[in-house]
Structure formats: structure tokens, C-alpha cells
């Protein structure tokens, strides 16, 4: 356990964010303490920072999406144990407690807001889910009132009998919504920029339409009716006036005025709504619908991830610099992202993928040592000590999956470890230049970018 908690502290309402140490939180009886390895940003992060809504106590730590390792469990926790790899929804927007914010090394998460990860799932990939899935389950099971499926392989509709329209399929929330809707048995129609169309079909959308197409409403209606279906459920992820009008028109013309429309932002008060409209805050799911949240996050999602009914999406962009990059992340999301989730890693991720451990002169049969591992801080030393002195090449993924660098690059890039420059000199006799090689084994989805 690292002994300090580095946090992005927002000191006052609409104030400045500063990186500071704060005490490691203590979980309550129904909570777990997560040592965050990856933290993802959401639009609400910068909105709360800039507009000051929602939070009643300062200083505060914002953020909702974490993935990491369980460090401690509360007295009543039964579903998790120390050492579990988990994703979790950080509930700061509900509680206004800094301990519940994501943007720090350690976050306290409610038991029913966490999911055990498959062993092969990278933390940065897992961090895409908490906010997106909390929003999705509230839309489907609370606002639409749909029944729960028996398990991750069971639908609630016979395929081809019910359809869902999602305006704005390209974003982070939509990637979870599309997959969950497909798993429930919906035929999914959505809109997105053309560059996302193939990706969204792979996630489960039956048809994807360009929202810039002036005839998009008629095209959606034609497809739905040619499939012999009627749309009575829709979600508008964009929730601007023009998209709300278009989405509600599709619903009225297909399913009639009793159709249900979920909006992720409020419907404007000065605009009449021709269908039943619903809006909500995702963070309320855990307090107001704790049983639903626990069923979904503890059981259904764990099974769905393990069996790849649900896969990490959208692609992740990792911003270097750890928690210290929080302002960069917020501002990047504020400027607008297109079909990616912006994530930071709290630790330098080091995976020794290949080290020739034979003597330099022994060119004929270099033995190869493979040590895939997550390591951080002092553990880097321990990992390097496992390699014999004559290890002449060690290619290490210190810069992200699928990219490899030499040990020299590790020490240069390891911002949490700048006190140990010897790593740059003692191990790099044969490889003083940064090398980058693609190792497909560690770039499974090929989806991670860095900036
Ligand atoms: N009520 C809640 O509790 C709740 C929870 C989560 C999120 N939200 C809100 O829901 C929205 C989506 O969240 P997110 O995390 O998914 O955001 P996001 O990933 O930042 O969404 C970006 C996507 O929005 C799409 N988009 C922008 N304008 C569009 C338009 N006119 N028509 C169709 N698509 C458009 C873009 O699609 P292209 O790339 O195809 O252009 C882009 O990929 C945000 O406003 C967020 O604040 C609300």
C-alpha cells in the first residue's frame, strides 16, 4: 500500500483545482476502499468545476469513474475482498464527500457500485464503465421500467420484436447503452458521425445514421418500419433543442404520444414535448435504487464482462501525468471529445514483455524472460532486480499497451519515481535509445492512444 493519497482538490465552489495530499479515506461498513489505477473523466466533472452545482461541501474531490484494486473492505461487505481488481462508481455527486471522489489515489466506493474485473481486462479499459452503465441502467430499468434479465445471456425481448432509438451513439455513455440494449434483446438504431458507424455496428447497433443528414428522421423511420417495428423507446444522449425535436418526432410518428423518451440533459421548459419524457441524474441510482445497482454492478456486469457480452468501449485515450493532469483532462472533455473516453493512470504501468537474459556474448540461444505485471513506485526496482545483471535488453511497456520502450525510457517517464535516476544508467548498456515496438499481445483491442 502506498502511504499517501494524492488528490485533485477543488478548494471552493468554482475555485481552482490543486494537487495535494489528503488522508487515505476509511470505508464505512457498506463501502470498499479502492486503490485507483485508472480514473476516467466525464463531462459533469468540468461542469461542476466551472458552474459549481451539485456539491455542498468544499474542499471536494470530483470524479465518478475508477478502476483499481480493493485495499480495504467495510465490516458488512460480502461481495469483495482485499486484492480484488474492480471498477467502481465514485459517489461524490451524491454525497458531497471528498472521500467519494475519483480524482485521487484512493477512493471509497459503495459495495453495490463495484464490479470484479476479468483478469485480462486493463484498468484503463474498465474505467469507461461506471458512469456510462449507471446512466444506462437508470434509463432502462428505472425510467423505462423494463424488467431485469435473468443473467447476462438472457434477453427480456425476443430478438426482432422491440427496438430502441438512441440519438448520439458516438459518445462514451452510448457505447454502454448500445451494448446493454442489444443484450436485453432490443434492435438498436442510433445516430453518429460516419467515422463511428462500423464501431457502433460491432457493438450491436442494427443501423447507424449520420445525424448531419438533413433527412435523418425519415431514414430512421423508413428502416424501423421496413423491419416491421415501431419505436416506443428512445434516448437522446445529446439533448440539445434540435436533437430533442428530431428524436421526439421519430417517436411520435412511429410509436405515438405514449412513447417514452429519456433525455440526459433537461428538456427545455419553453418547448412542448409530444411524448412522455424522463430525465434523471445517474448518481442517484445507488442511493435510490440500491437493489438494482447491486444486482447490476455486482452480478450482471461482472458476468457480462467475463463472458464478453459487454466489452470496453469507446476507445480510451490516456493522458500522461497521472492525477496531476486532471485539469488537462477536464479541459479536453470540455473542448469536446469524439467517440473516446479520456483516462489517466495513477501509476506508471510497467510490463516487461521480453528480456534477453543470456550473456551478451551468448548470441545463439537468447533465453527470453516474460514478466507481465502491473508495478509501480518501488516495485519497479524489485522487478528490475529479477533480471540478471547481464540482461542486455529489456523492453518495457511503460508508455501504454502495445508500445514498448527501453529501461531508459521507463525511468524518464516514471513521474512518480524521479528520485531513482540510476535506473537510466545501470541497465541500459545495450539499449540507450528509446525503442518502440508493437506487441499485439498487449494491445488486444488496439484501441488505446496516448497524449
Ligand atoms: N443525466 C445524467 O446523469 C448523465 C450521465 C452521464 C452523462 N450525461 C450527459 O450526457 C451527455 C453524453 O455524455 P458522454 O459521457 O457520452 O459524453 P461524450 O462522450 O463527451 O459525448 C461526445 C459525443 O457526443 C456526440 N454528439 C455531440 N453532438 C451531437 C449531435 N448533435 N448529435 C449526435 N451526437 C452528438 C459526438 O458524436 P460524434 O463523435 O458522432 O460527433 C461525441 O462523440 C453529456 O452531455 C453528459 O453531460 C448525463
Automatic annotation (TrEMBL):
Cross-referenced InterPro entries: ADH-like_N (IPR013154), ER (IPR020843), GroES-like_sf (IPR011032), NAD(P)-bd_dom_sf (IPR036291), Trans-enoyl_RdTase-like (IPR047122)
SUPFAM superfamilies attached to this UniProt entry: GroES-like, NAD(P)-binding Rossmann-fold domains
UniProt-recorded Gene Ontology molecular function terms: oxidoreductase activity, acting on NAD(P)H
All residue ranges annotated as the Enoyl reductase (ER) domain in the record: 15-344
Gene3D superfamilies tied to this protein: Medium-chain alcohol dehydrogenases, catalytic domain (3.90.180.10), NAD(P)-binding Rossmann-like Domain (3.40.50.720)
Superkingdom in the source lineage: Eukaryota
Assigned keywords, A-Z: Oxidoreductase
UniProt-annotated stretches for the region Disordered: 413-451
PANTHER family registered for this protein in UniProt: HYPOTHETICAL OXIDOREDUCTASE (EUROFUNG) (PTHR45348), ZINC-TYPE ALCOHOL DEHYDROGENASE-LIKE PROTEIN C2E1P3.01 (PTHR45348:SF2)
Name the UniProt record assigns to this protein: Enoyl reductase (ER) domain-containing protein
Native species: Clonostachys byssicola
Phylogenetic placement of the source organism: Eukaryota, Fungi, Dikarya, Ascomycota, Pezizomycotina
Amino acid at each position: 500500500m502506498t502511504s499517501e493519497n494524492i488528490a485533485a482538490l477543488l478548494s471552493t465552489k468554482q475555485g481552482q483545482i490543486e494537487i495535494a495530499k489528503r488522508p487515505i479515506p476509511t470505508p464505512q461498513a457498506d463501502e470498499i476502499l479502492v486503490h485507483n489505477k485508472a480514473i476516467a473523466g466525464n463531462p459533469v466533472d468540468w461542469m461542476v468545476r466551472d458552474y459549481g452545482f451539485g456539491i455542498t461541501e468544499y474542499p471536494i474531490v470530483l470524479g465518478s469513474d475508477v478502476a483499481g484494486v480493493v485495499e480495504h473492505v467495510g465490516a458488512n461487505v460480502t461481495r469483495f475482498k482485499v486484492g480484488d481488481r474492480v471498477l467502481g462508481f465514485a459517489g461524490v455527486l451524491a454525497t458531497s464527500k471528498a472521500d467519494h471522489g475519483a480524482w485521487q489515489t484512493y477512493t471509497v466506493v459503495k459495495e453495490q457500485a463495484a464490479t470484479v474485473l476479468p483478469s485480462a481486462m486493463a484498468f484503463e479499459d474498465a474505467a469507461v464503465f461506471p458512469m456510462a452503465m449507471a446512466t444506462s441502467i437508470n434509463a432502462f430499468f428505472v425510467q423505462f421500467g423494463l424488467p431485469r434479465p435473468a443473467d447476462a445471456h438472457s434477453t427480456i425481448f425476443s430478438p426482432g420484436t422491440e427496438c430502441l432509438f438512441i440519438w448520439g451513439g458516438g459518445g462514451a455513455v452510448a457505447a454502454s447503452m448500445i451494448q446493454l440494449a442489444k443484450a436485453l434483446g432490443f434492435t438498436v438504431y442510433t445516430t453518429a458521425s460516419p467515422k463511428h458507424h462500423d464501431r457502433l455496428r460491432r457493438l450491436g447497433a442494427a443501423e447507424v445514421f449520420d445525424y448531419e443528414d438533413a433527412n435523418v428522421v425519415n431514414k430512421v423511420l423508413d428502416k424501423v418500419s421496413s423491419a416491421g417495428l415501431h419505436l416506443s423507446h428512445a434516448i437522446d444522449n445529446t439533448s440539445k433543442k434540435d436533437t430533442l425535436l428530431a428524436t421526439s418526432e421519430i417517436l411520435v410518428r412511429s410509436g405515438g404520444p405514449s412513447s417514452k423518451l429519456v433525455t440526459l440533459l433537461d428538456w427545455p421548459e419553453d418547448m412542448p414535448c409530444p411524448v412522455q419524457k424522463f430525465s434523471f441524474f445517474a448518481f442517484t441510482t445507488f442511493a435510490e435504487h440500491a437493489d438494482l445497482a447491486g444486482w447490476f454492478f455486482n452480478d450482471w456486469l461482472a458476468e457480462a464482462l467475463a463472458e464478453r457480452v459487454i466489452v470496453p468501449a469507446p476507445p480510451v485515450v490516456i493522458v500522461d501525468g497521472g492525477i496531476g493532469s486532471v485539469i488537462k483532462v477536464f479541459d479536453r472533455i470540455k473542448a469536446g471529445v469524439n467517440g473516446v473516453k479520456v483516462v489517466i493512470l495513477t501509476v506508471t504501468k510497467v510490463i516487461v514483455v521480453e528480456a534477453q537474459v543470456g550473456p551478451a556474448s551468448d548470441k545463439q540461444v537468447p533465453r527470453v524472460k516474460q514478466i507481465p505485471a502491473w508495478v509501480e513506485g518501488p516495485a519497479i526496482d524489485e522487478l528490475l532486480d529479477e533480471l540478471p545483471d547481464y540482461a542486455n535488453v529489456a523492453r518495457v511497456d511503460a508508455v501504454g499497451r502495445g508500445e514498448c520502450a527501453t529501461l531508459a525510457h521507463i525511468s524518464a517517464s516514471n513521474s512518480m519515481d524521479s528520485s531513482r535516476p540510476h535506473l537510466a544508467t545501470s541497465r541500459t548498456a545495450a539499449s540507450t535509445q528509446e525503442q518502440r515496438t508493437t506487441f499485439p499481445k498487449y494491445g488486444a483491442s488496439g484501441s488505446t492512444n496516448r497524449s
